[in-house]
Amino acid sequence: MNKVMLGLVLGTVLGLLDGLSAWFTPEVRSLMVGIVIGSTAKGLVAGLLIGWFARKVRSVPLGVLFGLAVGFVLAFIIAAMPNAAGGHYWFEIIVPGTLVGLIVGYATQRYGKSPVPKTA
Amino acid sequence: MSAFPPTRHSAVVAIRSQDPGERSRGYDAIVAAYWRPAYIHLRHRWGAAPEDARDLVQGFFADAFEKGTLERFEPGRARFRTWLRVCLDGYAGHAREAATALKRGGGWTRLALDFDGAERIAGELQAPGADPDEMFRREWARSVLEGALADLSTWAAERGHDTGFRMFLAVDVESDGGARPTYDELAQAHGLPVTTVTNHLHRMRREFRRAALERIRALTLDEQEFRDEARALLGEDPA
Amino acid sequence: MKAPDDATVARLQRILDTPDLGDGRYELGERIGEGGMGVVHVGLDRRLDREVAIKFLRPGALAASDVARLRREALLLARLEHPGIVPVHDLGELPDGGVFLVMKRVRGRGLDAVVQGGVPLGERLRLFLQLADTIAFAHAAGVLHRDLKPANVMVGTFGEVLAMDWGVARVVAGSDATTETRSATPSEGSPPGTGAGTVIGTPGWMAPEQARGDAISSGVRMDVFGLGRMLGMLLEAPGPAGAAARTPPAPLRSIARRATAEAPADRYPDVPEMAADVRRFLDGERVLAHHETPAERVRRVLAPHTIAIVLIGAYVLVRALLFAINRR
Question: Does C60 contact B210 at a Cβ distance shorter than 8 Å?
Fold first, then answer.
């Protein structure tokens, strides 16, 4: 599986799981569908970006940092949206979201198949 | 290179000859190579006084010639050099035990032996306590090299290579560290090109090498012993 | 002429020990090495203006058998063209009848010196595999080395590994060196003076059958043994400075143990099999010579993925912590 596809699949799956884990926060159970869709979409976008980066730059440390940054930024955007009570789930969204970005960043660098260079 | 022909040049073989002339020549060659190591061995290992050592050396070789002691050497069990030293120790031991009055001025008188020179060398050597085997080997090597130099001198004289021989002496024999003449200096001194000096020295060294190996051949019985003694000449005693 | 003094004797001995190349193509330089039979000097090839190594026999080693042996070594090396074998440029005759071998001048260090400097295990194994590939090549060309030891392995300036000193190498019957040659006559293909009953090799590094004077019947497994001893040496060498001293991995010890089995039949059948097992270790696969416990298998499978496992574990932990906090 190439790096972009791996990022896409992994980001989507982890985003989905991340969204489903919101079930453990009772206050938001009623919003599960929206959370799962949003989290899955976030994971898909993050995975695509990180996978594309891994295709261009072959460096585990840089890949991990990029993944961390993308995961953080996207999680921040989501967490910045206020909840029904006007509050924010900063910690509950940003920390796992950043970790997911980190995981996808590492996985795409370590496991994704690199493109074969074009011969002259 | 053809294999070493042991039966042609070896003095160790010659001493077993039925022909008295050949046997005597064989003993001459052996005495020439071993008298000084024997003398120094007697001086240092046995603590013999110079006159006693002189008489013991001459007596030993005369006795060996008479009784055929050295002919009893068996190749494969030891080297001839070792065998000779063991025979010498036996002779010296008997002489000491019997406390016989040593015959002054007798013994092996076929060759003129420079005992004064040997005594000088004995005096310059390290104090007793040095390994007697190693000391004997070193003196044997010195004798062989001295003989090779004499052979080279004869060879050069016969072929009109005196200039080359003198250069060889100046560079490789008589020089010492800083006093060694350069090829340029030799070229100037003899009015020759440097390439000629180089050629002369190459020729002399080549011939010296050949002469030294011939001397060892004369003192060994077979190829293995020859190989071992050639290495011993360089100070590398194979185990 | 009076007897030469000690200094003169030393000078004359040096003359004896330095071969005379005459005024031909090669110019002799300083001595750079010596072994039992030969000495090696740096030299200059005047025709091509390049540095070479020149190997001679010692003055005492001038018997016909020794000369034949050096010739044989030259011919043997000439037929083995491989990056791991020093190329032979020329075989020459000395004015006094001896022969000399002209080879590529190799700059480098002995393998044992290199690994004593604290080389990571992976790098040591890569050096080993280079050597194994060289020996496998020689076997395929019909040549056994028979004297593998660290002193005969050099690591060049660019990390290339060279198998040196093929002086007691043996050409086996036909070109298939993997065929054991029990039926070969003792003198067939061996250097002179190394027939049946002769002990060939170096104590401590040679196979048991070689030490017993049988340097023929076990064929390539003799060299497998030598490589096994070399692998053992490499495993015991220290790691990089500052790294904790670790016991060599069990699979590698198993490889070395199998290669150095007392009975030739218990060793690897050939060098490629042994090298393949080392490569399996490097690739994280199961080593055939090693009986793996279930725990070792789990460790081996999961080890390459340690970081991924830690990251996932961290994510699960964070989720669990968040859950615990929310419950409170």
Answer: no
CA distance C294 to C280: 18
**Beta-ladder partners of C57:** C38
Q: Exposed e or buried b for every residue in B12-24, given b needs 16+ CB within 10 A?
A: bbbbbeeeeeebe
Q: How far is CA B173 from CA B82, B152, C56, in A?
A: 28, 12, 25
| Each residue's pLDDT tens digit, C134-163 | 999 999 999 999 999 998 999 999 999 999
Beta-bridge mates of residue C31: C41
What domains appear along chain C, each with residue ranges and CATH number?
Answer: 6-104 (3.30.200.20), 122-292 (1.10.510.10)
Q: How would DSSP label each residue in C79-100?
A: H---TTBPPEEEEEE-TTS-EE
Q: Let me know if chains A and B touch, i.e. at least 3 Cβ pairs under 8 angstroms.
A: no
- Which chain C residues contact residue B174 at CB under 8 A? 8
- Nearest chain C residue to B239 by CA distance is C36
Task: Output the tens digit of pLDDT for each of chain A's 120 residues.
Answer: 888 999 999 999 988 988 888 787 777 788 888 888 888 998 999 999 999 999 999 999 999 999 999 999 998 998 888 776 777 778 888 888 899 899 999 999 999 888 777 665
- Asked if residue A20 lies in contact with residue A71, where contact means CB atoms within 8 angstroms, the answer is no
Cα–Cα distances in Å, from A112 out to A6, A70, A104, C251? Answer: 6, 18, 10, 29
Q: Which of C3, C4, C59 lies nearest to residue B234, judging by beta carbons?
A: C59
Helical H segments across B45-79, by residue range: 50-67
In this structure, chain C runs to a length of 328
Q: Where are the alpha helices (DSSP H) in C179-240?
A: 208-211, 220-236
The larger pLDDT score, comparing residue C47 to residue B121, is at: C47
Domain boundary assignment for chain A? 3-110
